[in-house]
Amino acid sequence: MKLKEFYQLYDFDEIMPIIVDMFPGTNKFKKPLQKAYELIMNITPTESKQTIKYKILHDDNSGESYMGAEDSNFATTWDVCLGKNVVREKDVYLTDIEIAANSLINLCFISNYPKEFEESHQQLVAQ
Fold first, then answer.
1. Domain residue spans in the chain?
2. CA 85, CA 81: separation in Å to the nearest integer?
3. Distance separating alpha carbons of residues 81 and 64, to the nearest angstrom
4. pLDDT value for 53
5. Nearest-angstrom CA–CA distance, 59 and 30
6. Burial of 125 (0-12, 13-18, 19+ CB in 10 A)
7. Residue 114 in contact with residue 39, Cβ under 8 Å?
8. How confident is the model at residue 107 (pLDDT cuts 50, 70, 90)?
């Protein structure tokens, strides 16, 4: 499934509680995250043969493991990210809404966002 399709499955008000669960303290960023979601819903995806691969990642500093996608999967523009297929490796049990939530955060902080998101991005990184 393309990344854009994950967002089409849910309203922002369904995704936001998952973001708060995954990233405690993010409730204060509801407005800029909602702006990102609204922009995403209006962007036409650019077809891409690349994938966003969710897998088990290891943090060498803490020794902990977690499910996620490497930052490099999001190192492009939003339209290209939205046109990528999302795959889950074996033993990755993230739900569709968890992928939508996680990737929204990744788009906001890693990807090259559209100029319409600049003010909201500044709100996210200011704190």
1. 3-125
2. 9
3. 27
4. 98
5. 28
6. exposed
7. yes
8. very high
